[in-house]
Amino acid sequence: xxxxxxxxTVSDKGSQGLREDTSGPALVKMLExxxxxxxxxxxxPDDYEQIRxxxxxxxxxxxxxxxxxxxxxxxxxxxxxxxxxxxxxxRPAPGIPEAMRAFSLTITPxxxxxxxxxxxxxxxxxxxxxxxxxxxTENLSAVxxxxxxxIDILRGRDADCGxxxxxxxxxxHHG
Length: 175
Known about the structure:
- The chain has helices at residues 12-15, 23-33, 48-62, 81-88, 95-105, 133-154; strands at residues 3-10, 36-44, 66-70, 91-92, 118-121, 124-129.
- With 175 residues, it is of the alpha/beta class.
- It has a single domain (3-155), classed as Molybdenum Cofactor Biosythetic Enzyme, Chain A (3-Layer(aba) Sandwich).
- The chain has a 6-stranded mixed β-sheet with strand order 2-1-3-6-5-4, with helices on both faces.
- Helix 2 packs across helix 6 (133-154) and helix 5 runs antiparallel to helix 6.
């Protein structure tokens, strides 16, 4: 089955061509290695309305399975990606950033300053990632398998060998 994804880099300097975007391409590579088809990439400034508009379009029109942002999640006054994200999601999915932060905290105590958000809009899972290449790929690696499973559930697909539609008392362990 085809998992589609978009990777949007949120960066004032990146959008002005003043800084090379290394996070976006690294995330695209990781997604493609894990069975995703990346149908859109882009760089937008740290602008609340532009972030909102992009995420709404990806969910409502492009209808990607997974929309990832990288950047704009810190403590700077320009960092508004989580707020813009939460304004467009219909249902929050707090376990995703919780898992990312738990993993990141094993690497650096500064992960406590991460403000990434995640949630669902229609059939799209939206996840914020940090701006640095290292942190964004580490964070994605922590949740990627779970995200695929979540997409299967959200889209009503038979995941894990079609076991889901046998409604019995057996327990399925997803590793």
